[in-house]
Amino acid sequence: MHDKTGKESIFVVEKADSISSPPELFSMLLQVMAMLRSENGCVWDREQTHETIKRNLVEEAYEAVYSIEEKDYQELKEELGDIMLQVVFHSRIAEDNGVFKIEDVLRAIIKKLIRRHPHVFSGKVVQSSREVLSNWEDIKRQERQDKVCNKATEKQERSSMFSNIPIILPALYFAYEIQSRAARLGFDWEGTEGVIEKIKEETVELEKELDSRNTNKISDEIGDMLFTIVNLSRHTGIDCEKSLKDTCKRFISRFNFMEKYAEEKGLDFRSLSLAEKDSLWEIAKNKAMT
């Protein structure tokens, strides 16, 4: 196969199949992206900016997570490739704009991993994973403080242990990350008993605000309740996001069963009373348990 200039092209699927070395394959990926962004490449790829494709990065990450949850490892292989594409794509855009190159990205993460694992690379002694995480936060905090900031307020914000938590994270994961970082500095309950008591306390406060009909205060109390429930999931080692998603899936499955069951019985589901729908719900629950 030849390219537009008549030269033999390196961009053929069979070429990738013939390579077994990861560095060579990565190099080919970079060449493919450079070609796509070149004058002889793809007009769509050339037009893209960080802003136009930033959503793709989030979507690909979610799809990879879904593959993990489904234990679909062949699909995970594809999704991880899509995430890698996003890294290479953004790096190429940055290089075209004269901001940074892919080697800068690789160099930065290599140095970061070495710097944040002194117990592996610098002889520092640690006794537990908890100590590893605590050291990790100390090193991150120092890194933030070492960055040059133009304004004192910016410097103060960047030195916070919470400053680099992506605001785009789902709320449950956002809360989980905040709690985890605070816990690494010793601000945490010792066990689940204290969290359970806090949930009870938040329930009482929520009930009080429900009577007041003050929507702002009700919103605050619901937020406090959710935040505490995330704390409970963290203490029990449960992925709160997955737990809620699994509940949503169960609800959808049971609700679909209810509608189908009603249809098979010649009933109009929409016109059924709440009590009748509750009965169908119990049938759906029992069906799922068998």
In short:
This protein has 290 residues and is an all-alpha fold. The chain is built from 14 helices and no strands.
What does this structure look like?
This protein has helices at residues 13-17, 22-37, 43-47, 50-69, 73-96, 102-115, 118-121, 129-146, 152-158, 171-184, 192-212, 215-235, 240-264, 274-289. By secondary structure, the chain is an all-alpha fold. Among the domains are: 116-164, no CATH class; 171-289, MazG-like (Helix Hairpins). The longest helix has 25 residues, at 240-264. It starts with 12 loop residues before the first helix and ends with a helix. The model has no long low-confidence stretch (mean pLDDT 89).
Tell me the helix content.
over 70%
What's the order of the H and E elements?
HHHHHHHHHHHHHH
CATH architecture of one domain: Orthogonal Bundle
What are the low-pLDDT stretches, counting only 5+ consecutive residues below 50? none
CATH homologous group name of one domain: MazG-like
Largest sheet: none
Give the N-to-C terminal Cα separation: 58 Å
Structural class: mainly alpha
Oligomer: single chain
Labels describing this entry:
Helix Hairpins; mainly alpha; 72% helix; 14 helices
Topology:
Elements: H1 13-17, H2 22-37, H3 43-47, H4 50-69, H5 73-96, H6 102-115, H7 118-121, H8 129-146, H9 152-158, H10 171-184, H11 192-212, H12 215-235, H13 240-264, H14 274-289
